[in-house]
Design a protein that fits this description.
about 350 residues, mainly alpha, two-stranded antiparallel ribbon, 4-stranded antiparallel beta sheet, globular
């Protein structure tokens, strides 16, 4: 019988390697957005995809200790900044916070003060330009819609604020973490089961977008609750996280894998974000049912992938791909496979927790 640690370690390596095997591009592009490419497929600069690539490469580094993965994380970071005209900021507060979270993690791994400073600079920028009282005190989604509030912006703000508070002990970070978390809970979480809606007031009508049922909203709320548990010392937040994590599986899967969420590109990343923050919960509150979901879903994913050659998953993990796919979709498979590798013990002892 194949050693499960070796098996999932190898699969995680294959998934990570496929990013460059399939999508590598000449500078300054770095990665093509889609494979196979098509006319105009590289026109968009996907800032937030690169932020998640940084995190994914750090997953591989912390699993293996191989400095090549760390170098690729730094390379992705440098490409993001270079293509963003040498700066950190754009119009989307959620995009910037994903980068700040990756930068904070890079700082922890490398000890480089510059990465830590980037995380703080982004935090200060989004609070200064996006935090307001529309629809309840919280963070806007982007500069052009300051009265539109959602989970994708406020969730990362909670996580980053709590982590910066853990670093510094500064009360300002704890204040924003608590306020943003309470706003999500009060405004966008269904009280009966913990399901997390996407946003409110997108069209200026004060309406909640209940039609957008996305995995990453569930994952973000789980991750935010775990960070509030650390910040406050209250395990009640872990109960909240557990309820939402279970509801996501019940509501958004076919029992084994998440149902497809869209094919436009961004949606490809949503599942991976759920897996990333589910693992932050399972590290502190083990749950056999959720761990079994990680096993079942990644078994389905890898049952469809070829035994050799580059890894190319579809958005629907039950089927082989039949169209061009963005590297965001591959990143979700990478993050889920890294989660499975961690469950079977492939992460080397002494490595710093990730996510």
């Amino acid at each position: 019988m194949t050693d499960p640690v070796a098996l999932w370690d190898a699969r995680a390596d294959r998934a990570q390697a496929a990013v460059h095997q399939l999508y590598a591009a000449d500078d300054p592009q770095y990665l093509h957005n889609w494979y196979p490419g098509f006319a105009g497929s590289d026109d968009t600069f996907n800032y937030w995809w690169l932020a998640h690539l940084i995190d994914a490469r750090l997953d591989a580094f912390e699993r293996t200790g191989d400095g090549r993965w760390l170098a690729q994380a730094v390379r992705a970071r440098d490409n993001l900044v270079a293509r963003n005209d040498g700066g950190l900021f754009n119009d989307y507060f959620d995009d910037m916070l994903w980068f700040a979270l990756a930068s904070h993690r890079l700082a922890g791994v490398t000890g480089a003060a510059g990465h830590a400073a980037d995380a703080v600079a982004v935090w200060e920028h989004v609070v200064a330009h996006g935090w307001n009282d529309a629809e309840g005190t919280s963070l806007a989604w982007r500069t052009q819609q300051l009265a539109y509030k959602n989970t994708p912006a406020n969730g990362p703000l909670v996580i980053l604020s709590a982590r910066l508070h853990a670093d510094t002990g500064e009360d300002r970070y704890a204040h924003y973490a608590r306020t943003a978390f309470d706003w999500i809970t009060r405004t966008l979480v269904r009280p009966e089961d913990g399901f997390v809606e996407d946003g409110i007031n997108r069209e200026g009508d004060h309406r909640v977008d209940t039609q957008w049922r996305f995995t990453y909203n569930q994952g973000l709320y789980v991750g935010a609750a775990v960070e509030l548990a650390r910040l406050t010392g209250s395990d009640a937040y872990l109960d909240v996280a557990l309820r939402t994590a279970r509801t996501a599986v019940a509501e958004l899967t076919d029992g084994d894998v998440f149902r497809p969420e869209g094919d436009d590109g961004d949606e490809g990343l949503f599942k991976g974000i759920y897996y990333r923050y589910l693992m932050t919960l399972l590290r502190v509150r083990p749950d056999p049912g959720l761990a079994d979901f990680v096993r079942r879903s990644t078994d389905v994913l890898w049952s469809v992938l070829p035994a050799g050659g580059p890894v190319l998953p579809a958005n629907d993990w039950r089927h082989a791909p039949h169209r061009s796919l963005p590297y965001s979709t591959l990143l979700s498979a990478v993050m889920a496979t890294e989660a499975r590798a961690e469950l079977v013990g492939a992460r080397r002892s002494g490595a710093r927790p990730v996510g």
